Amino acid sequence: MNLSKIYLYSKNLEPGGPFGDRESGFETLAEQILEVGDVNEAIRNLVQDGFSGEDDRPVGGLNDIAKSSEEERRFLLEKYSTDQIQDENLRGELESYKFFGLEPLTSNTAKEVLSRLHRLDRLDGSIKEAMRTGQLENIDLDDVEDLIGSLARTQLEEILRMINALEEAGYLLKNRDRFKLGPKAVREIAQDAMREIFSQMKKGNLGAHDTFKKGDWGDLTGQTIPYEFGQSFEINLQKSLFNTVVRQGSSIPLKMQSQDLEVNEHEHLTQSATVLMLDQSRSMGMYGTFTAAKKVALALYWLVQTKFPRDKLFVVGFSDYGMTIDGKDLPESTWNHWVAGTNMHHGLILSRQLLARQNVANKQILMVTDGEPTAHMEGGQAYFSYPPTPRTLEQTLKEVKRCTREGIVINTFMLEMNYFLMEFMDEMAKINKGRSFYTKPDQLGKYMLVDYLEGRKRKV
């Protein structure tokens, strides 16, 4: 794992150290969380492998320290010989370490060397436990410094300070020996995902918007409204100047103030309810597409939270079974490592049930998948078969028909192009009249977010 460019600021750190700001530091850790789907595993990787600071100076982790400990042990064993030790008890203890050097040990030197080897054994045990848990608190830093050197101690202290600073900033919440993501962390990950996707788009795709604030997305109504902080700064100069003259008179120069500003009003777009169906089948992870799909889900989640708060967005993951995923849990969602199956049927059932409860004009399902359905529900149980059985295809298409009767549009984003999937998508389109897109994982966000925004313009 390459945790490059972690920047961190803490009031306890000296200026000019290896860190910058905490927000940037969390971005790098967040990338690992998205990949592995578990904040504690990401922190264990950080603790084991270390990272690079702002100046590209490497900060080693436990793997480096374990290697240094082994080198210190090998140095002692290669240097000394136990041939001249007369004390049988002492000789017995020493022989368990298999010395093969040339310099004879005296009794006093042997006791010192033996003590050092015992301390290295204890340190190795605490390092192995820290690698397993990701917790550094039980490692004796004095022993690290004495046995391996001050640099090793400094490296561990920097890792500890980074994790503690992220706790203090609210990114990480600790419960006993485990971490979970705080609301600030979820917000940061989602914001980064949205920035990444929108940065890939040509400005013309979304009306040249660089910021994503409330009130600047619908068509112009021809009216103006008073400017409020946080709105797009699309000032109507004529109305703003008029307000300034009314307030201060016509004397020159005009001194415009914030209360004089008015912005162009945009129409309110149609409220909508959307289910994002996210394929979590094994192939999504095996071929590296799930992380890209999850970033899009996070970006859409954040767009709705901040831009269209009256909209409803649900996420349904599906592999062998379908399941709802809360927005705050998206960063740590992952693909199904163990059980095969793409149960699109169950995912559609859950999506239709969620949308049935929403009294809105537009209802849609945005489905991301890399394969045709290979499982369906029978009597509450999932049945898997590859190649898919006619029964699986039939049941899935029946659910598409139910969605269609309830006015739900299904748009599908395919991350793989094969004959079986394309044929199935054609059958879906005949029933539902929704659209299908084939896109590479790194282009998925552009297509899906534009499709979501375009879908909101439909008047029902």
List keywords for this structure.
single chain, 460 residues, alpha/beta, Rossmann fold, 3 domains, 6-stranded mixed beta sheet, 16 strands
Q: Topology of this structure?
A:
Blueprint: H1 22-36, H2 39-49, E1 51-52, E2 58-59, H3 62-79, E3 80-81, H4 88-95, E4 103-104, H5 107-133, H6 141-147, H7 150-168, E5 172-175, E6 178-181, H8 183-200, E7 220-226, H9 237-248, E8 262-266, E9 272-279, H10 282-286, H11 290-307, E10 312-318, E11 322-325, H12 344-356, E12 362-369, E13 375-378, E14 381-384, H13 390-405, E15 408-414, H14 419-432, E16 436-438, H15 444-456
Parallel strand pairs: 3-4, 9-10, 9-12, 12-15, 15-16
Antiparallel strand pairs: 1-2, 5-6, 7-8, 10-11, 13-14
Helix pairs in contact: 1-2, 1-8, 2-5, 3-5, 6-7, 8-11, 11-15, 12-13, 13-14
Brief overview:
The protein has 460 residues and is of the alpha/beta class. The chain contains 15 helices and 16 strands.
Largest β-sheet summary: 6 strands, mixed
- Relative helix content: 40-55%
Radius of gyration: 30 Å
**Total count of domains:** 3
Look at the helices and sheets and give the structural class. Answer: alpha/beta
Shape-level CATH architecture of the largest domain: 3-Layer(aba) Sandwich
Please state how the strands of the largest beta sheet are arranged side by side.
Answer: 11-10-9-12-15-16
The number of helical segments is 15
Mean pLDDT: 83
Cα shape: flat
Low-confidence stretches: 1-21, 202-217
Portion in beta strands = 15-25%
E-strand count: 16
- What's the level 1 CATH class of the largest domain? Alpha Beta
Distance between the termini: 49 Å
CATH superfamily of the largest domain: von Willebrand factor, type A domain
CATH topology title of the largest domain: Rossmann fold
